[in-house]
Amino acid sequence: MSAAATTASTGSTTRVRRGRVRRNAAEWTRIGVLTSLFVAILIAFLSPLAYSFLTSLKTPQQITANNAPLLPSDPATYDYNGKTVQVYNVPLPDGTVKELALIKPGRTQSDFIDPANPGAGPITWQGAWRTLSQPFQVAPHWDNYQTVWDLINFPLLLRNTLILSTVGTIGTVLSCTLVAYGFARFRFPGRGLLFTILLSTIFLPGAVTLIPTYAIFNKIGWVGTWLPLLVPTFFANAYDVFLLRQYLLTIPRDLDEAAEIDGAGSLRILRSVILPQAWPVMVAVFIFTFVYSWNDFFGPLIYLAGHQDLVPLQVGLASFHGIYYTNPAYIQAGNLMTLFIPVILFVIFQRVFVKGIVITGVEK
Amino acid sequence: MDQVPAILTPGSTSLGERLRRLGGFRWSKMSPLARREARTGLLYISPWIIGFIAFTLLPIIAAFVFTFLNVTLAQKEPLRFVGVDNYVRLFNDGQVWESLSVTVRFAALWLPISIIVPFGIALGLSSKYIRGAPIMRSLFFLPYVVPFVAGVLVWEQMLSDTGWLNNVLRFVGVQDPPSWLFDSTFIYPALVAIGIWGIGAGIVINLAGLRGIPTELYEAARIDGAGTWAQLRNVTVPMMSPILFYTLILGVVDVLQYFLVPLVLKNGTGEPGGATLFYNLYLYKTFFTYQELSYGATLAWLLFAITLGVTLLLFALSRRWVYYAGER
Predict the structure, then answer these.
(1) A60 to chain B, minimum CA–CA distance in Å?
(2) ipTM score of the complex?
(3) Which domain holds residue B198?
(4) Model pTM greater than 0.95?
(5) Do B136 and A38 touch (CB under 8 A)?
(6) Do A177 and A105 share a domain, yes or no?
């Protein structure tokens, strides 16, 4: 792998141009090998999603059957004179195996009909039909989604998740914007120290603060409500403040100063001068926080335990798994229903995601 | 992320640097204008200051006080000072050391993988011998946004006996593929696989770091006759060391707290055979299931102390191998 040699060339125009020069066979081989290797890794990496999707459309019978095909399928049937009959793999005297529909089962001999040629009349076969295996025909069970929708009470979970994510996101964006603005644009004593403390909270194990916080929330009757999940979001967090501050620092001060001379207050400057220039990072924080709260599991788990009417999708899904773990199709349908919205948001805003990760991840 | 962020020069904004810069000026020496600016600034950051005091600082202190009391959620016994009883119990609690060893064993497996795999994939994706790197980057990132519970439950069946992994293994001739989630040894690679699914962010961070390495360094190395491997060792790795270090530090902090995947996967039972009874899971059960807040706080403080110790040790050792371009 000659990756190291090439990392340097990315992004440099002269190199890209040189890349268009005719390549020799060895270079094409390298391109072929490396690209196919990565395609293979990606297929393996994303295969659980495909597995989940295919499983979600299956019946429990198919999942446990050992000769079942990859695609969601049912045992094949045939419509014989208005009656649905089962199709079997029948070994014929001439040594071939044919898919025939069983019309008259019997203990030692049964009558079959050839679905490909029904006009030929019944074929009598000697043997016990119960020993025969059945061929499968593709049959996606979309109704699994409907069933899970009802079983899990999806509309309620979705409503709870939407409220928690939306309010949490508003709280985070509001508070983090104000705090980032304070850190980015004003000089005050201890600013460096406070910012260091803010960043160091990232390294603090959550359990240390969780136990007394939980005890207090329990004491004031907030456990079993949404308040412990929502109120703290209005008091800013290290990741998003950092992300916003880094961006605000790149915005030139000229316009702020012009607005200040015109008599605009600091809040006015934030609203009319800074925010219009900061919308890319605002979108990033908004999307990040929304997906983060959507995916949050532990907070709702401990603060909403026993309040099934208040829990969001993640907690609902975990308890659903506790009950229906024997039916993988239901579990996977539930999974896909909860991951749908974050994944769609990612597909739409993927550049925003990537940029946000780079800023919080690389610059610290 | 087509352009590299300007502040890609590590070191200039490092924690140490910030610590050195702190302080700066005093209220008394400030002009009225400066004083007004300072007041406005503090007003803007006040939501965080209030939140920090209420949800971080006071709880940390309270947790420490808890360790010397007998707080439970129901508080049936009268609240009293118990001295170092909780600490004595902790040292005599076999479960503590057992769960710590589970955590350390998993960390020993997970940490190298969680650093090397994203680095390796990022190296590949930034190679000139690859086609479709942007779309691949997005696809590698995708599972990162899959909700955690859904991700775990997808993998639970993927790794089951009827799942694709064992079907593939049987197809390539493995007669008796392992029962990943029910074997006290194979559960760890299974947990690693689940964790690998979320490395998208790591790949993106590594990619950005690789882009920030000046081309001239590679050209100079080539002129000196360095081959691919020598360039990787002498240019890429040293230049990437701040990012690898950052990944390592956050990885250590995270892995010491690891327990949510086994909590969902095994309902917090620690199955198979206690192999997933991670330290933080034991802490969570002590505090949440058994509602022993004081003992839970003692466990939390031990975790805090371990995290702090390991982090400081890594920072101290980092002088030997982490290279900051901006420093001497």
Answers:
(1) 12
(2) 0.82
(3) 87-321
(4) no
(5) yes
(6) no
